[in-house]
Structures are given as C-alpha cells and as structure tokens.
Design brief:
The chain has helices spanning 40-51, 86-99, 147-151, 161-164, 180-189, 209-217, 311-331, and strands at 2-3, 9-10, 30-36, 56-59, 73-74, 84-85, 103-105, 109-113, 119-123, 127-135, 139-141, 157-158, 172-176, 195-199, 221-224, 227-234, 238-245, 251-255, 258-261, 265-267, 297-299. By secondary structure, the protein is α/β, with parallel strands linked by helices. Strands 3, 4, 7, 8, 9, 10 and 21 form a seven-stranded mixed sheet that branches. Strands 12-19-13-14-15 form a five-stranded parallel sheet. The protein has a three-stranded antiparallel sheet with strand order 16-17-18.
Length: 332
C-alpha cells in the first residue's frame, strides 16, 4: 500500500504500478428472511428475526404501517398511558425495527415464487431471495364507497368496534351491515352507545340465528330494514347519516355521533393464490402455529386472523412467526 497526496490509501497491483478497476456497488438481494408487509405483525417479526441474528428484509409496500396509519387515537396498545396516534405508533415501531438491524425497503411486491428454496420475491424494481418468508400483508375492511368515509375516517367513521367503541359513550351510532360481523359490532357497541341503528339493505339478517336472537332482544338496537347509507355528513366529525330506502328511494336522516361499517374484510392474498393454500374467503390457511402449506413460508396477522383483527394480536402473531422461522432455519 502507498498513500496519495490527498491522504487516501491506494491499492497498487503487483508490479504493474496501477490501481485495479473498482467493482460497482452490488445491491444486496439475498436474505435469510423476507417479510412481506409492514404493519404491527411485519415490524414485530422483523424485530425478533433480527435479534435472532437472522439477516432480515422487510418489503413494506407503498403504504407502510398497515391500517394503523389511518387511525387517530390508539388507547388499547400497551405501553402508552395516555394513548398514542396510530401513525406515531407505527413510526416508533419502525424505528425500533431498524435499530435492530432489519433492512426495510418501501417497495411493493408484485410476484412471488415459493416452489423452491431459496424463495423468490419480485418487487417493481428488484428480485430478492429468501430462505424463509413471513407473509404479513394484512386485510382491508370493505367500504361503502362514500366520500364521507374518506373525509371522516378516524373522525366518526370506524371499521372496528373493539378499537373505537369506547370513544362513543352515550352517543347514537349507526352500524352498516347484516352479517355476523355487523351483529357482533352492534352488540359490543351497546356497552357504550345510547342507541345503535343497524342499517341493512335487506328484510332479514344474514347473521347466525343465535346472534340474531341476541340482537333482537337488545332494546338498544333499532333495525332499519331495506336501507342503505347514502351519505355521511359532518363538520370536523360525523354528525348525520342519510339513509335511502331500497324499495321507495325515500331518504331519511339520522343524527348520530358515528358510523361503524361492518360489511366484511378482504385479506391481501391475491399474490399468493397459486402458491399457498387459501380458504374460500382468501385467508391464508395455517397448518400449525404460523406455518402455511409450504415449508419455510409463514404468515402472521390479519392475513389469516379473521377473528381478533387487533394490532396487539397481529404483533403477537409476528413474534410467533419469527420464532418459528428461527427454528426452521436452524433445522434446515
């Protein structure tokens, strides 16, 4: 070695007196673990995988953070005495995940190949390989398709009674839907609200018989048959909901403090339709713990969990999947 006039160290080729050509910086594309999705499940899985000394990549998609980035107050996530804003919570968890050494790339996955290890994951700009995969792509609530849903999201429009019900004490509320989810949401909300207006587009519910019986027996629940939600009106927050009769087109207005939309969820699993086993609704089928039908591919969070759909349970599943991945890699 010899130093240049600028103080930089130069490498001299043996006897040739010239510097060898420098190699271009190669982008890292091979990892022990690739996590697809970056909500509470994905970030938690990243924390645990990285702490286990596994070279870990999270492909967060174009909207990192999951559903919590569209949530205002979160008061049921442990560790925050006075609650925390949803986006702030996800920023904190992301920073923690990065501090553990996880590589996070905000790129959208467009295709996967789980037929052989290492598994291949293709984004819009790169192809990555991983010896294990954790799918954390979540699920999205179905929406009514109204402008007011966007305007008043987190300001009176909600898709989760367990998450937001306590914010609506002694108020009148609308629940849109007629299946098990809607009845379950309405029944839960009676703990807080003064009146629940259950709006259903048909003359009878689709919910199971026992759930219907409970709802009909609850004096706080009022049923609006053959009605759809036509408009959501407010001033900073929800104040009124306009209903339309599906038979007469007559419109009526309810003064309420909020509306809970409970018409189902769609898991984000289209990418995996021909790669792993899904059920009829598109949720990932787990064979054991967080294991999917393909050895080395795991899943965590709302992408398989249709029952709880909470940030804390998603994080728990992310932890479980990471522990299973570490065990799998050690054995393989």
């Amino acid at each position: 070695m010899m130093s240049s006039a600028t103080g930089e160290t130069q490498v001299v080729d043996k006897g040739l007196g010239k510097k060898p050509p420098s190699k271009p910086n190669e982008k890292k594309t091979k990892f022990d673990v690739i996590i697809i999705g970056a909500g509470p499940a994905g970030y938690t899985a990243g924390i645990y995988c990285s702490r286990a000394r596994r070279d870990t990549l999270i492909l967060s998609g174009i909207l990192p953070g999951g559903q919590l980035v569209n949530t205002t107050d979160v008061e049921n996530y442990p560790g925050f005495e006075n609650g925390i804003m949803g986006p702030d919570l996800m920023i904190n968890i992301r920073k923690q995940t990065e501090r553990m050494g996880t590589t996070i790339i905000d790129d959208e996955v467009v295709n996967v190949d789980f037929k052989h290890r290492p598994f291949k994951v293709l984004t819009a700009s790169e192809e990555y390989e991983g010896d294990a995969i954790i799918i954390c792509t979540g699920a999205n609530p179905r929406k009514l398709g109204l402008e007011g849903e966007t305007t008043y999201g987190g300001k009176g429009v909600s898709y989760c009674a367990t998450c937001d019900g306590p914010f609506f004490r002694n108020q009148e509320l609308v629940v849109a839907g007629g299946g098990d989810s809607a009845i379950e949401e309405a029944t839960f909300l009676t703990k807080f609200a003064s009146t629940i207006h259950l709006v259903h587009r048909r003359e009878q519910l689709r919910a199971s018989k026992i759930m219907q019986e409970r709802a009909f027996a609850d004096k706080k629940i009022k049923f609006h048959w053959n009605k759809t939600v036509e408009e959501i009106i407010g001033n900073g927050k929800v104040q009124k909901v306009v209903l339309r009769d599906t038979k007469t087109n007559e419109k009526t207005t309810l003064e309420v403090g909020g509306i809970f939309v409970a018409i189902g969820h769609d898991p984000n699993t289209k990418l995996f339709a021909n790669q792993i086993e899904l059920d009829k609704q598109g949720y990932i089928v787990l064979k054991e713990n967080t294991k999917t039908s393909v050895k080395g591919v795991f899943a965590a969070g709302d992408v398989h969990d249709r029952r709880y759909r909470q940030a804390i349970t998603a994080a728990g599943f992310g932890c479980m999947a990471a522990i299973e991945v570490d065990k799998f890699l050690s054995e393989n």
